[in-house]
# Entry
Amino acid sequence: MTSTDTTSGKSGRVAVVTGGSRGIGRAISLELAARGNTVVVNYTDNAAAAEETVATIAAAGGTATAVKADVADEDAVSALFDRAAAEFGGVDVVVNSAGRLALSTIADLDLTVLDALHRVNIRGTFVVAKQAARRLRGGGSFVSMSTSVVGTQLPTYGAYAASKGAVEAITLILARELRGRDITVNAVAPGPTATALFLDGKSEDQIATLAKNPPLERLGTPEDIARVVAFLTGPEGHWINGQILRANGGMI
# Structure
């Protein structure tokens, strides 16, 4: 895998971002790197996208490496954290941005699709959280990704919202389990965000309607979410712990 290094703008902190090569995960990788974190960009299939993200970080003077791992594979995720420790000395920030989306009414839901979605979104979160709980250094942070649909409960989002409800359920529990270690645990729940994952399969009218829902009357951007994650994992946000932050522009 590609690894780059520089001494400019270094914070000395190391961040592991799962699903860090595309969409919101890519924006998080870039934002954390811009704030001086060394970033381990995890990906599952698209090596080219991961290497492009690493190259973008390097071009801006940052440090990054791309590491392949299936977040639901415990051995692969353990090896991912081993790699971060071996190359950079340890881990201070873990952002579990890897996830899957599948839309269907409950009546028509293909249970094999449900199993695949939950394997990544629920099992994957537990696998990554398990390693984060064991490996994060004091002063560190773990952030998982939920969705505002857990609250809005839109039709056809049943399987996805259920999986993210599980993510939210473990947030305060894990924060309490890490008592005394100076490690924060939070979840960010984006609203409609202009990523390929969100836009795929939607008509222009559907997108326009969703964009008008928040009082700010626009879709979120990956950069909007990345800045929230950067705040939670930085010193300014370290008093926030065990929370679900709904980053959705005031979406109802």
Summary: The chain has one domain: 14-247. The radius of gyration is 17 Å.
